[in-house]
Amino acid sequence: MAVSVVLAVIVGGMAGQLRHTVGAAPILAALLWAACFLRKRDVALIGIGAMLIHDAIAGVSVFTVVRVVAMLGVVGVIWAIRVRPTWLSLLSGLVLVAPTYHLLLATGDWVTQFCTQAPHTLPGLAATLMSAFPYFQRSFVSEVLFSAAFLGVYALSGSAVRLWWPAAFPQPISAK
C-alpha cells in the first residue's frame, strides 16, 4: 500500500508539473507498470490518487470529475486485460488504454463543454473527438516513452539488488 501511495504522489506530481504542455502523461504508464507488479486495488489507488494530485496542482474544476471517471474506465480496462511485464503486453495494454482514456476525456468534454463548447449533437461529438486527436497522438508517444522508462527503472533496480544483495533472491537447490 505504501508503494502505491508513493507512486501516486510521484506520478501525480510529475503530471501536475507537466500540465499537458507537451502531451506528457506519466499516469497511464504508471498504471500499466503497477498492473504488472501490484494488486488490483493498488492500481485503482494509484490512478485515482495520481489524477487527484495532478488536479490539485494544475487546478481543480468540473473537469476533475471527468478525469476521475476516465481513470476508472482505464483501471477497468487494465483489470480486464491483465497486463504482464513484457514489452508485448505493455504495448498492447497501451494500445487499449490510451484510446479509452482519451475517448472518455473527449466525451466528458463534450458533455460538460469545458474546453470545446461543441453543441450536444452527434456532429458536435464528432467535432470534439476530432479536436482531441492531435493531443492523443502527442500523449501516446510520451506514454510509450514513460512506459519504457518505468520498465527500465524496474529492470535496473532488479539488477542492482541482484548484484549488491544477492541473498534477496532464492538460490536454486543443487542436487549432489
Describe, in plain words, how this protein is organized in 3D.
This protein has one domain. The model has no long low-confidence stretch (mean pLDDT 79). The longest helix is centred in the last third of the chain and has 43 residues, at 122-164. Helix content is 77%, strand content 0%. It contains six helices and no strands. The chain has 176 residues and is an all-alpha fold. Helix 1 runs antiparallel to helix 2 (26-37), helix 2 (26-37) packs antiparallel against helix 3 (40-58) and helix 4 runs antiparallel to helix 5.
Proportion of helical residues: over 70%
Shape type = elongated
* Number of distinct beta strands: 0
Strand content: under 5%
- The average pLDDT value, as a whole number, equals 79
Number of domains: 1
Regions with little confidence, pLDDT below 50 for 5+ residues: none
Largest sheet: none
CA(first)-CA(last) distance: 42 Å
Q: If you compute it from the alpha carbons, what radius of gyration comes out, rounded to the nearest whole angstrom?
A: 18 Å
Q: Structural class of the helix and strand makeup?
A: mainly alpha
Q: Determine the number of helices (DSSP H or I, runs of at least 4 residues).
A: 6
Order of helices and strands: HHHHHH
